[in-house]
Amino acid sequence: MRFDILTLFPDIVHSYGSESILKRAQKAGFIKIAAHNFRDYTKDKQWHVDDKPYGGGAGMVLQVQPIWDCLKNIKALKNKKTKTSKQKTKIIILDPAGKKFNQRMAEKLSKLDRVILICGRYEGFDERIYKLADEKVSVGDYVLSGGELPALVIVEAVSRLIPGVLGNEESLLNETFGKGKYPVYTRPENFMGQKVPKILLSGDHKKIKEWRQKMAKIIHK
Ligand code: SAM
After folding, report:
1. Domain shared by 165 and 186, yes or no
2. Is residue 69 lining ligand 1, measured as CB closer than 6 Å?
3. Which residue out of 92, 94, 105, 149 has the highest number of ligand 1 atoms within 8 Å of its CB and is therefore the one to mutate?
4. Could you tell me the EC number(s) of this protein (predicted)?
5. How far apart are CA 31 and CA 155, in angstroms?
6. How far is the CA of 93 from the centre of ligand 1 (A)?
């Protein structure tokens, strides 16, 4: 699976993508994360990618031209004439007013071949940029300074669902997001008087399983 991230700050993407699970997943060939600086595509002599809003108002607005050219160059324009493959692709704009990202959406995205994520900055996007995308997605009801963190949230949540990405497949089965979350403990047995429940030290796997199921029900009530 391939992720293309359009951003003005590709180093944010490189930095996070070159650590831990995403690093291993890329090395093993399960995923590929490419960051594209759409400033490289501006036709402005001063390298600007934003301008004042028509009609006045606060802040600067991202221009459509650099993003259009960037998508064209990476063969991701939705235009039929430029589409070269039958890949299952989705173009997503990160936007605080978009559809709320959740595990269900991550599962759907994990079935695709390619996800393209467009990160905003400043006051957001020229309205015509939305026409280049399939969907607007928000990672939560708060406003961040840019779309890079939201894009990486999506990349990581989706990548974890790709078979092979998590070394220990069991950790996906016991995923805490699901209804099966129960309390877990590790050493020491006693930390400043807070003790690990005795049942977990009993070695009785049947009873441990029952206890975990009971605790999961309490947690998710
Ligand atoms: N006034 C703008 C608006 O309401 O869209 C705020 C833009 S914000 C400062 C700059 C960019 O950060 C947005 O265009 C978007 O790409 C990204 N962003 C900020 N918060 C986000 C969120 N909760 N989910 C997804 N993207 C977000």
Report:
1. no
2. no
3. 94
4. 2.1.1.228
5. 10
6. 10
pTM score, two decimals?
0.92
Ligand 1 pocket member 138 (CB < 6 A): yes
Q: How many whole angstroms separate alpha carbon 111 and alpha carbon 121?
A: 29
Q: Which atom of ligand 1 is nearest to the CA of 143?
A: 20
Residues 9 and 118 placed together within one structural domain of the fold: yes
Residue-wise pLDDT tens digits, 147-171: 999 999 999 999 999 999 998 755 6
38 CB-contact burial (10 Å; exposed 0-12 / middle 13-18 / buried 19+): buried
For the cut 90, the answer to whether the pLDDT of residue 83 exceeds it is no
At residue 112, what are phi and psi to the nearest 5 degrees? -85, 170
Q: Encoding tokens for residue 202?
A: 């009993």
Q: Could you give the number of structural domains in the chain?
A: 2
* CB-ligand 1 contact for 164 (6 Å cutoff): no
Tokens of 219: 């947690």
